[in-house]
Amino acid sequence: MRKYLKRFGYAGLILFSVATVVFWLFSFSFPSPEEILVTDRTDEATLDAIKRDLSLDKPKWQQYVLFMNDISPISIYNKQTEISTRHIKTLPIGSNTLVFKYPWLRRSFQTGQATSQLIQDAFKGTAVLALASILIASIIGIVLGVIASVKQGSWIDQSVLFLSTIGISVPSFFSAIVLSWLFGHVLSDITGLNLSGSLYEVDPFKGRVLALKNLVLPALALGIRPLAIITQLTRNAMLDTLKQDYIRTAKAKGLSSRTIYFRHALKAAMNPVITSISGWFASLLAGAFFVEFIFNWRGLGSLTIHALETSDLPVIMGCIVFIAALFVVMNMLVDVLYRLLDPRIQK
Asked: What is the number of domains present in the chain?
């Protein structure tokens, strides 16, 4: 129990550090919010009202405290202050209120929508893309890894190693550019795939329709690197397992090759592979920025890049904090999974 509390403490410290860096970095490197929101016709009274509404009339350190108070799940608000987020429980403390709530990431400067709602809508697209990518990488990678280990030293094994090495070396954004150009433009008449597109399209007669074909190319582009790593990891784990005494005993008993390779060897070799798959899934959830941008896929990456282009500070900072929290949570889950798969690990 103590070690888990320690890990929660580290996770909280990481998120606190990320939020602090994000606030101070974007507070000085971007135009001030009132410069983004006002127009040539905005009068002085309206400008003052905007500043008060966004707490821009306060010193930077007070703005920082208010920002951290908003994104914290446990916050203190003045009783006269309207709480702009769903709260779980409130406790009155003198003239203030202790609030247990969901983190409040404020509102977009461009649309006025809650940043948390924008992130929630965009995350669905990213989650579908990451899940499709990791499924492709896992299935193909494990199959190729098993084949390469069984055919060790053959041309098949050498070819798999060569292709997986290339796959590890090629960045995802380069794979995305090549795949979109080749299969979405040059060979589009044959493949039927689009150069870009999202999970849903608007049909003039049917309305909003599911377009799974748009998922193929971005999922492949995002899944090439994890596929290559899973292939090599599966191959190496299988080769180590096939050298064990119980595998030799199984062969001596006359068990079929399918039983030896898949029921015994592969099952024992899956621990590091599953851990790698879990880690890669976390990375894909937070690392699909350029792939989403290239394929015009609606997700966290495209939302963040659009916010950067329009200087939409609440969305930028909200996306970064959310992605950091996602990384922390997924890494903790991977750590727990690894302990469950390998009980020998105690620390």
From this structure: 2
Place of tokens 């094994």: 157
Contact 288, 126 (CB under 8 A): yes
Do 245 and 198 share a domain, yes or no? yes
CA distances from 341 to 35, 87, 114, 216, 259 (A): 54, 37, 40, 32, 22
List of E strands, the chain:
74-78, 87-93, 96-101, 200-203, 207-210
1-7 long-range contacts (CB < 8 A, ≥24 apart) are 3/347, 7/332, 7/335
Q: Confirm whether pTM is higher than 0.90.
A: no
Each residue's pLDDT tens digit, 273-289: 887 887 788 778 776 78
Q: Residue 97 is part of which domain span?
A: 2-101
With 0-12 / 13-18 / 19 or more C-beta atoms within 10 angstroms meaning exposed / middle / buried, residue 166 is exposed
Look up residue 107 and give its DSSP letter: B
Q: Is residue 106 situated within a structural domain? A: no
30 plus 161 within the same structural domain: no
**Is there a domain that residue 334 lies in?**
yes
- In this structure, the number of other CB atoms found within 10 A of the CB of residue 339 comes to 13
What confidence category does residue 343 fall into, taking pLDDT thresholds of 50, 70 and 90? low
215 part of a folded domain? yes
Report residue 86 as tokens.
Answer: 């769903």
pLDDT digits (tens, 9 = 90+) for 78-126: 765 555 555 667 777 777 778 888 888 888 888 888 898 899 988 888 9
